C-alpha cells in the first residue's frame, strides 16, 4: 500500500484526488492539508466520516501521518515550499500545481537527489493531453508554423497554462526558433499576438464554463491542421494521478511529464 497525503485537499482537484485515492485498493489515504482545515475528509467528498481531518500545517501533518507520497494541487505561490518540505521529510511529491519556475524545478531536482527521494511533476495528468502534446511534436517536424490556444475556467491563476508551455517545449525540441507571421506586424493593442515562446504564439482564454482545453494549430501551404484536447471534467486527470502515486517511489531524482511513466 502506498500512503498518500493530499495538499490543496479542499480545492477542485484536491477533492477529486481524495475520491480517487479512496477508491484505489493499492493506495491508502492517510492525510489532507488545506488552508480550510477542520473538516473530516468524508464530509468533503460525500462519503461516511473517515476520521481523517484536514490539517492546516503541512509539517505537522507529515510528521503525524508519515505518508510515502504528497500529492500537491494548491497554487503557484505555495507548491515550491510544499515540495521542499516533503522532500526534506523523505516524502515523494507528486505535483500537479502549475507555475513552478525552471529555478524551482532545478532546486526540487537537487533536493530529490540529496534526500534520495524521487519527485514527480506533470503539467497535465490527462492521457489525452499527453497524446495531443506528442502528436503536436510529431506534426511540428513537418509543419513548423504553429500557434497554441489554451482555454480554461476563469479561476485559473497562471497563464499560459503549464500544458501550453509544456507543448511549446516539446515543439522546440524539433523546431528551431523562428519568426511567424509578417516580420513587420505590430500590435495595435498590447498582447494581441499572445505570449511568444521562441516564435510559438500562445493565446490564453479564461471563461466560466470551461474546464481545461487546448488547440494546437499548424499552418502550411494551402492547409491547416488542428489538434485539440478537451478535459470536460476533472475525472480526466485521475488515472494519471493514481498512476503517479503508485510509480513515484520507483523513480530516481526528478521526473517531469506523465509520458515518462507510460509503458
Ligand atoms: N497537472 C494537472 O493535470 C492539473 C493541474 N492543475 C493545477 O492544480 C492547481 C490547483 O487547481 P484547482 O484545484 O483548480 O485550484 P483550487 O483553487 O480549486 O484549489 C486549491 C486549493 O489549495 C488551497 N491552498 C491554498 N494555499 C494553500 C496552502 N498553503 N496549503 C494547502 N492548501 C492551500 C486553496 O485554498 P484557497 O481557496 O483558500 O486559496 C484551495 O482549497 C492549479 O495550479 C492548477 O493549474 C489543475 C488541474 C489539472
Ligand atoms: O488550472 C487548471 O485547471 C489546469 N491546469 C493545468 C495547466 O496549467 O496546464 C492542467 C490542466 O490544463 C488544468
UniProtKB/TrEMBL annotation:
Q: Where in the cell is it found?
A: Cytoplasm
Query: Which keywords fit this entry according to its UniProt record?
Result: Amino-acid biosynthesis, Cytoplasm, Diaminopimelate biosynthesis, Lysine biosynthesis, NAD, NADP, Oxidoreductase
Molecular function (GO) terms for this protein are: 4-hydroxy-tetrahydrodipicolinate reductase; NAD binding; NADP binding; oxidoreductase activity, acting on CH or CH2 groups, NAD or NADP as acceptor
Give the binding site residues for (S)-2,3,4,5-tetrahydrodipicolinate: 153, 162-163
Q: What is its EC number?
A: 1.17.1.8
Ranges for domain Dihydrodipicolinate reductase N-terminal come to 2-125
Q: Which GO terms describe its biological process?
A: diaminopimelate biosynthetic process; lysine biosynthetic process via diaminopimelate
One GO cellular component from the entry?
cytosol
Q: Where is the Dihydrodipicolinate reductase C-terminal domain?
A: 128-262
The residues responsible for catalysis, as annotated, are: 152 (proton donor/acceptor), 156 (proton donor)
Please describe the quaternary structure of this protein: Homotetramer.
Q: Which NCBIfam families match?
A: dapB
Which family, according to UniProt?
Belongs to the DapB family.
State its role.
Catalyzes the conversion of 4-hydroxy-tetrahydrodipicolinate (HTPA) to tetrahydrodipicolinate.
Q: What is this protein called?
A: 4-hydroxy-tetrahydrodipicolinate reductase
The species is: Propionispira arboris
Give the source lineage, highest ranks first. Bacteria, Bacillati, Bacillota, Negativicutes, Selenomonadales
Amino acid at each position: 500500500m502506498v500512503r498518500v497525503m493530499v495538499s490543496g485537499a479542499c480545492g477542485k482537484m484536491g477533492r477529486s484526488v481524495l475520491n480517487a485515492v479512496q477508491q484505489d485498493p493499492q493506495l491508502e489515504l492517510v492525510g489532507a492539508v488545506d488552508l480550510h482545515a477542520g473538516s473530516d475528509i468524508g464530509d468533503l467528498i460525500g462519503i461516511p466520516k473517515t476520521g481523517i481531518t484536514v490539517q492546516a500545517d503541512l509539517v505537522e501533518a507529515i510528521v503525524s501521518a508519515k505518508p510515502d507520497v504528497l500529492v500537491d494541487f494548491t497554487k503557484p505561490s505555495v507548491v515550491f515550499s510544499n515540495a521542499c518540505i516533503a522532500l526534506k521529510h523523505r516524502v515523494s511529491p507528486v505535483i500537479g500545481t502549475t507555475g513552478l519556475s525552471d529555478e524551482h524545478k532545478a532546486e526540487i531536482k537537487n533536493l530529490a537527489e540529496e534526500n534520495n527521494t524521487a519527485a514527480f511533476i506533470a503539467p497535465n495528468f490527462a492521457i489525452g493531453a499527453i497524446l495531443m502534446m506528442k502528436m503536436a511534436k510529431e506534426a511540428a517536424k513537418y509543419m513548423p508554423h504553429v500557434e497554441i490556444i489554451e482555454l480554461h475556467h476563469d479561476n485559473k491563476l497562471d497563464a499560459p497554462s503549464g500544458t501550453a508551455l509544456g507543448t511549446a517545449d516539446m515543439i522546440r525540441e524539433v523546431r528551431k526558433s523562428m519568426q511567424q507571421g509578417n516580420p513587420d506586424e505590430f500590435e495595435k493593442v498590447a498582447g494581441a499576438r499572445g505570449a511568444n515562446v521562441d516564435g510559438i504564439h500562445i493565446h490564453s482564454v479564461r471563461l466560466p464554463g470551461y474546464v481545461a482545453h487546448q488547440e494546437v494549430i499548424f499552418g502550411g501551404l494551402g492547409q491547416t491542421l488542428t489538434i485539440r484536447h478537451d478535459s470536460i471534467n476533472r475525472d480526466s486527470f485521475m488515472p494519471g494521478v493514481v498512476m503517479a502515486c503508485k510509480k513515484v517511489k520507483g523513480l530516481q531524482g526528478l521526473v517531469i511529464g506523465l509520458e515518462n511513466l507510460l509503458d
